[in-house]
Every structure is written in structure tokens, then in C-alpha cells.
Design goal:
Elements lengths: L5 E6 L3 H12 L1 H8 L3 E7 L15 E2 L2 H5 L6 E4 L7 H10 L3 E4 L2 H18 L3 E2 L11 H7 L5 E7 L2 H13 L3 H10 L8 H4 L2 H15 L9 E2 L7 H9 L2 E11 L6 E11 L11 E8 L3 E8 L3 H20 L22 E11 L4 H11 L4 E9 L6 H7 L2 E8 L2 E2 H12 L4 E10 L3
Parallel strand pairs: 1-2, 1-4, 2-3, 4-5, 5-6, 8-10, 10-17
Antiparallel strand pairs: 7-9, 7-11, 9-10, 11-12, 13-15, 13-16, 13-17, 14-15
Helix pairs in contact: 1-12, 4-5, 5-10, 7-8, 13-15
């Protein structure tokens, strides 16, 4: 074993960074044995140096992250500060000064991954980022290495623990969205500002990374169709249960049937209870991969949190350090297919549409005509009368009351389904479109 240690600079010492530092200390002997050389924490860049950080030598703390990555004796930089800047500049500076990089920064990789890979290649350095997607679940490396000889056609997954917890609570307890969000916040699953999670930004960044790796093409977060869960209601959950389904926020990356394009999208969807993803509960993540030769594979585990994410960081650290000792680098960007990313309108999917309609003869025929005019075939229809109340009572009485009409379609282009919904809104017999949700996983 080499006696000179490999020096590691840690950028960020929050929940994940502090756990990385702790594991590097407590597992020092095992890491040295697995790598073939000891690893040494050479510096920790933070914004608030006065904070007490147990187990970390105060002499290692610095607020000058730039000076730390420029030292020249740093072998690996671990970046867990997140965001676009200063992370992007610090990573490229690290490459320029001889260090490889391990990152958990999904937002930066989804936005500017191609440029970061190019900088790593230019300077002969590694860029590893297993922790950027699905926490402790080994996913990036299997897609990038284990399935490198196969053709991946679809990646379907739950990649955000906060939203999965909220939807799971809504499904199992009958709680509304606000109630479930409050519980997630109280338990520490949701941030004080949950926007990135509940509006789908976090999942969209991960979808962009997964699509790029799976299909060997460049996909940025702006290419990903995104919808959050804030409009999902208890009524949607009840309707899903009646169909033998549940609701999940899914990241779906697909290769087109002709192989000439890809799509990437994030949105809530109903999936059958028989699908493996339907049983993913609480804040867990799971990703379903469909490959031509390997068939269907499922990766499951904790998708967030200090320890799970730090586990993924340490796995990358071991791989990068081994490469450093062997004077080689691991796989870089693979974007040779140069496949275009098709718009959401080209996606072929199914819809579950709930309508508030006038309860009178001929309404169903009118609704069916709209679907037919847009070329969308109806699979099932469920109609239920209900009493009117409030300001609509007089109109409801004139029309014979109100009814709820639930339509589930066959597969059709998303653009046709969207056009159908817009046409339905214009019918005088349709009081409102109560909810729209896609049906997946069949």
C-alpha cells in the first residue's frame, strides 16, 4: 500500500458534507484497504466557520473555497454545496489544478453537465456523481457501466422522496395535499420552502441526468416536461383507488419506437397497484429500467438524507481514488447518439379526466363526440349524479342537477389529449374540468 495519503477537499459541510467527513474518519482503515492508499481530509470549505462541527479539526475549516481547490496538492474535490454558482466555477478550477471531482449537484449537472464533462476530459480528470440521483441507490454507475453494452429503452422512476411521502400519506390516510405537506415538513422530509420538490424541479434535474446517461445523448433540465403535485387532490386519490391504481410523481425517460428521438418528463400519474413502483412507500425512491437484453430491472432504496447520500459520495470517492492511483480515468460523457428530445405533445400516453357536467340527457354523447373529433378513443366512462349547492344551485336546478363524469382514454398523443381537454372546457354542458391525470405503467 502507498503510504502517502490521497488528499481530499470537501466543499460544503451541511447534512451531507458532515456525514461524508464522519465516514471518512470512522472508515479510514477500510477505505485505505479498498483504495490501496490512505485518504486524508485536507480542507473543508464552509460559509459559516463559527459553527461547531463535531469530529472535524477546526484547523481544516476555511471560507476560501477557491484557494482550497487551487492548492495543487488536492487529489479529489468533493462538492456538496449545491446550486449553479459558485459550484460550477469551483469544479472547473479543481480540474485545472489537478483534482478530480465527486459531486452530488443534480441541478448543476442537469444544467451544464456537458461543459463539466468537457472540462474534466480536457484536463484528464474524473467527474463522478452517483449521489446526484436517488441518494444511496446505485443507479448512475449501473446505467453508465453495467448496461454499457445494452440498449436502454425506458427509465421510469420515483426519484423524489418528499413528494412520494406526501402522495403516500394522501393515499393511505385520505389527507389533503396541505395536510400531507405539513406532516412531511414536521418530520423533516420537506424543506421550509418545498418548491423544488413539490413543483417537480428536483425530479426534472434527475430525469435529465438519467436520460442523458441511458440514451447516450445530451438532455438538459429545460428539455424535461415538468408538472408538480400541488394540484393533486384527495378526490384524485379516491378515483385512482376505484381504478385499482395509486398516484405517484414519476420521472419517465423514453426512447421513441423508431429510435430517432427521446422524451423526458416528470408529472404525477396513476399507476396500477400491480406495478412494482406502486408499492414504494414513505420517502423511498425506486427506478424501473427497461433494457433490450437485460429486460426489466428495478433499483430501490432511500433516495435522500445525510447518510444515504454520503454513502454514494464515498463510493465515488473510492472509485476516483483508485483511478488516481492507476493513473487513469473512468468513463466520461457518452453523447454519441445526438438524439433530439421530442416535445411533450409527441408522447403517447393515457388520460384520466374528471368532469363536472350538467346532469341531463345527451351530455355523454356530446363529450364522446369531442373525443372522437380529436381522434382520442375512450376506454371507460363512469358517471355519477350529485346535488348542487351554492351559487350554481339555480343553474343546476334548471339543467336537472350536476353530475361527475370520469373518462379514461386509450393511448394517444399527448397533444391530442390536451386539445380534447380544451375542447371539453368550451362545452356549455361542462361546468368544469375537475382534474386531469395521466395513466402510466401498464
Amino acid at each position: 500500500m502507498r503510504t502517502r495519503p490521497l488528499k481530499v477537499a470537501l466543499l460544503g459541510c451541511g447534512v451531507v458534507g458532515s456525514e461524508v467527513a464522519r465516514l471518512m474518519t470512522t472508515h479510514a482503515d477500510d477505505l485505505a484497504a479498498r483504495i490501496g492508499a490512505p485518504v486524508e481530509l485536507a480542507g473543508v470549505a464552509v460559509r459559516r466557520p463559527s459553527r461547531v462541527r463535531e469530529g472535524i479539526d477546526p484547523a481544516l475549516i476555511t471560507t476560501d473555497a477557491t484557494a482550497l481547490v487551487k492548492r495543487g496538492d488536492i487529489d479529489v474535490v468533493v462538492e456538496v454545496i449545491g446550486g449553479i454558482e459558485p459550484a460550477r466555477t469551483l469544479i472547473t478550477t479543481a480540474f485545472e489544478h489537478g483534482a478530480s471531482v465527486v459531486s452530488a449537484n443534480k441541478a448543476l449537472l442537469a444544467e451544464d453537465g456537458a461543459a463539466l464533462h468537457a472540462a474534466a476530459e480536457k484536463h484528464g480528470r474524473d467527474l463522478y456523481y452517483e449521489a446526484a440521483v436517488a441518494g444511496a441507490i446505485p443507479l448512475v454507475r449501473p446505467l453508465r457501466e453495467s448496461l454499457a453494452g445494452d440498449k436502454v429503452n425506458r427509465v421510469l422512476g420515483i426519484v423524489n422522496g418528499t413528494t412520494n411521502f406526501i402522495l403516500d400519506r394522501m393515499d393511505t390516510s385520505g389527507a389533503g395535499y396541505s395536510e400531507a405537506l405539513d406532516e412531511a415538513t414536521a418530520l423533516g422530509y420537506a424543506e421550509a420552502d418545498p418548491t423544488a420538490d413539490v413543483e417537480g424541479f428536483d425530479a426534472a434535474a434527475k430525469a435529465a441526468i438519467l436520460a442523458g446517461i441511458a440514451f447516450h445523448t445530451r438532455v438538459r433540465i429545460g428539455d424535461v416536461h415538468r408538472e408538480g403535485i400541488t394540484e393533486v387532490t384527495a378526490a384524485d386519490m379516491a378515483s385512482a383507488r376505484r381504478m385499482g391504481c395509486t398516484v405517484k410523481l414519476l420521472a419517465i425517460c423514453e426512447r421513441a419506437a423508431d429510435g430517432n428521438s427521446v422524451t423526458a418528463r416528470v408529472h404525477p400519474a396513476m399507476i396500477p397497484l400491480s406495478h412494482p413502483l406502486a408499492s414504494v412507500r414513505e420517502a423511498y425512491n425506486a427506478v424501473f429500467v427497461e433494457a433490450e437484453a437485460a429486460g426489466q430491472l428495478m433499483f430501490y432504496g432511500p433516495g435522500a438524507g445525510g447518510s444515504p447520500t454520503a454513502s454514494a459520495v464515498l463510493g465515488d470517492l473510492v472509485a476516483v481514488c483508485r483511478n488516481k492511483l492507476g493513473e487513469t480515468t473512468g468513463p466520461g460523457e457518452s453523447a454519441y447518439t445526438r438524439l433530439p428530445v421530442s416535445p411533450m405533445g409527441d408522447v403517447v400516453t393515457r388520460y384520466h379526466i374528471s368532469l363536472d357536467v350538467a346532469d341531463r340527457p345527451g351530455v355523454l354523447a356530446q363529450v364522446a363526440t369531442v373525443f372522437a373529433e380529436q381522434g382520442v378513443s375512450i376506454d371507460t366512462v363512469r358517471q355519477q349524479g350529485r346535488s348542487a349547492s351554492g351559487v350554481d344551485a339555480a343553474a343546476a336546478a334548471q339543467d336537472g342537477g350536476e353530475a361527475s363524469l370520469v373518462v379514461v382514454t386509450h393511448r394517444a398523443p399527448d397533444a391530442a389529449l390536451s386539445a380534447t381537454v380544451e375542447a371539453l372546457r368550451k362545452l356549455d354542458t361542462v361546468r368544469g374540468v375537475a382534474s386531469i391525470m395521466r395513466v402510466e405503467g401498464e
